[in-house]
Write a structure and sequence with these properties.
Elements: E1 9-16, E2 19-27, H1 33-43, H2 51-54, E3 55-62, H3 64-75, H4 78-82, H5 87-101, H6 106-113, H7 117-121, H8 129-141, H9 143-154, E4 164-173, E5 196-203, E6 209-216, H10 221-234, E7 240-244, H11 252-263, E8 270-276, H12 279-286, E9 302-305, E10 314-319, H13 321-350, H14 357-367, E11 377-381, E12 386-390, H15 392-399, E13 404-409, H16 418-426, H17 428-441, H18 453-476, H19 501-509, H20 521-528, E14 532-538, E15 544-548, H21 553-561
Parallel strand pairs: 4-7, 7-8
Antiparallel strand pairs: 1-2, 3-14, 4-5, 5-6, 8-13, 9-10, 10-13, 11-12, 14-15
Helix pairs in contact: 3-5, 3-20, 5-6, 5-8, 5-18, 8-18, 13-14
Length: 571
């Protein structure tokens, strides 16, 4: 077996009597290899320092999440949409990005800027509260211009050939007692002991936010709709549009107002409508001899009908068997619960422990409508007896209409068939998704602490713009999250929506088809924040060199989806 020997000698060269000579100073062969390398480099003239002093990380700041959101905002042209360049625009952009990444109060957000690369890159680090509020005031003056640009981008015929806009109303509670907009009203957040504001959101058919309006907390839905219609007519310059809203929003009175506006001399736009009928109107259609009969749904779940009370309109009757079964189940549960609630009272009367019609009536009145089922019971009270029986005929009549709803619209049949009308109305689910994003899932609009009307309006506008940005981020980054990228097309427009096979597989495996982990949208943003920008100093007095940490595969994929390289700085 052949052996190899290595010898490392430390030698010096010198001249003696004019001749070059060499001398072995030491045999280094017994030293470890890394020590020999250090000696070689030192003799070559390199200045060596301890490893801990060669490079110092002066500061490490989260960068990836800010860079990703900023890249999406830049791709959307959001900075230019806000207004001309300047410090106020930079502050507003920082507020919007901060709302997407870390919803908090304005003071907490301004402090958070310093802990990310956004503070230094946008020049907003150390911004005062007065500067932040001045930027909000500036943004509010730009609201009409911003919303007009968004309307032209997403509601104009080129982008929205069906000429449809969705509108819905929601509310959020207000802390404090000094905001004039804060009033008591019908709370959609279940905060019955709080004052609130209301706000109406206008979107395109896919749910992209386009405009938002703030109203006092006691405003009724139809009143908010009137202002949305006025904006469509006067501010957005759209000649034709169909407003889609639920049965509480677009009432018969509002439809008459739309008709009157369309008929005005010199009207610059023609607005149509798509909404649903209320229960009494449906009952009238289902009355004896009416067009809404059970036989309509023998073969299909929808049918188009007409009625003289709706001239020039189309009525699309739908029956959702899943909804019908759920309503029947719920009604039966509530009826049973009402009977159980009153069972002890019935037992007391039967045992003679409770007498007197007035006393019995007081007790019955307290409990009978706990579950809103009083209309379905016949109650007979005497001084010594109490009987409770179900109104079977009334219950059966209501059950016959379970799962049935009727849409009314001015859309021409050549423009949209009945299935298309149903699909357009169901798009209102996109607005509901926006409200969940605005209030709970992403942007945490509530509660509201501002005292001045205009500050409240500016705050809501900021959140709407953050929702616009989040809407696009969720779609761009869908391959890395549990979001369904390819929602199946409904073969039955009345049936509930379903998830695609690929989305179900992601949800069960928690990995995509390539084996990479998938996350919730919020968890993905948190993961991106671990991509830091580090200020590194080489040597003891060298300059600071900004350097990105090595990105993970998910972080690299994020910026590939955003169609950009990972930037070292935002600007």
């Amino acid at each position: 077996m052949e052996r190899t020997y290595e010898t490392h000698l430390l030698r010096r060269s010198y001249r003696e009597d004019g001749k070059a000579k060499n001398e072995t100073v030491a045999n280094l062969s017994h030293l470890p290899g890394h020590v020999i390398e250090v000696i070689r480099r030192a003799l070559a003239g390199e200045v060596l320092v301890p490893a801990g002093q060669a490079a110092t990380v002066a500061r490490s700041v989260p960068h990836g999440h800010v860079a990703a959101v900023w890249a999406q905002a830049a791709a959307l042209g959001l900075p230019a949409l806000l207004g001309p360049p300047g410090r106020r625009r930079d502050l507003v952009m920082a507020l919007i990005v901060g709302r997407v990444l870390r919803p908090a109060s304005k003071l907490a957000t301004a402090s958070w800027w310093d802990d990310t690369t956004m503070g230094a890159d946008l020049g907003v680090a150390g911004a005062s509260t007065d500067e932040v509020y001045a930027a909000m005031d500036w943004l509010l003056t730009r609201q009409d211009a911003i919303e007009g640009a968004l309307a032209r981008r997403h509601l104009a015929p080129a982008a929205n050939p069906e000429a449809m806009a969705l509108f819905d109303l929601s509310s959020s509670w207000v802390e404090g007692r000094h905001c004039p907009l804060a009033q008591r009203g019908s709370s959609r957040d279940g905060k019955k002991n709080r004052t609130q504001i209301e706000y109406g959101l206008l979107t395109d058919p896919a749910g992209r936010p386009v405009a938002i309006r703030v109203f006092p907390g006691a405003t009724a839905d139809p009143t908010a709709f009137v202002e949305a219609v006025a904006a469509m007519r006067t501010k957005f310059g759209l000649r034709r549009m169909v407003m889609v809203g639920d049965r509480g929003m677009i009432t018969a009175a509002r439809i008459e107002a739309i008709r009157a506006g369309n008929a005005e001399p010199g009207a610059r736009s023609e607005l149509g409508w798509l909404t649903a009928l209320r229960a009494p109107a449906i009952k009238a259609l289902a009355a004896a001899g009416g067009p809404l009969q059970p036989t309509l749904f023998d073969e299909h779940n929808l049918a188009e009908i007409t009625h003289p009370d709706y001239p020039g309109e189309r009525l699309i009757a739908c029956r959702n068997p899943f909804l019908a079964a759920e309503r029947a189940r719920k009604r039966d549960e509530l009826l049973t619960a009402t009977e159980a609630k009153l069972a002890p009272l019935l037992a007391r009367v039967a045992a003679g422990n409770l007498t007197g019609a007035d006393q019995i009536g007081l007790k019955v009145g307290r409990d009978l409508n706990t579950y809103k089922m009083a209309k379905h019971f016949e109650v007979t009270i005497t001084d010594t007896t109490l009987t409770l029986t179900r109104r079977s005929a009334q219950i059966d009549a209501e059950a016959a209409l379970d799962g049935i709803y009727v849409l009314r619209t001015s859309i021409d049949a050549q423009a949209l068939d009945p299935a298309g009308v149903v699909g357009a109305y169901k798009n209102l689910a996109h607005v509901e998704r926006d409200f969940r994003s605005i209030k709970a899932d992403d942007l945490d609009l509530r509660p509201i602490y501002h005292r001045l009307d205009d500050r409240v309006r500016a705050h809501v506008l900021l959140v709407m713009l953050a929702c616009y940005l989040t809407w696009h981020l969720r779609r761009t980054l869908a391959p890395l999250t549990y979001t369904d990228e390819h929602t199946p097309t409904r073969t039955d427009p009345v049936a509930p929506a379903t998830r695609s096979t690929a989305a179900a597989a992601k949800a069960s495996r928690h990995h995509d088809e390539h084996g990479e982990p998938v996350r919730s949208f919020r968890s993905l943003l948190d993961h991106l924040a671990t991509l830091t920008r580090n200020d590194i100093r080489y040597g003891t007095d060298g300059p600071l060199v900004p350097t990105l940490a090595e990105p993970t595969p998910t972080q690299r994929r994020t910026f590939e989806l955003l169609d950009t390289t990972i930037p070292l700085t935002l600007k």
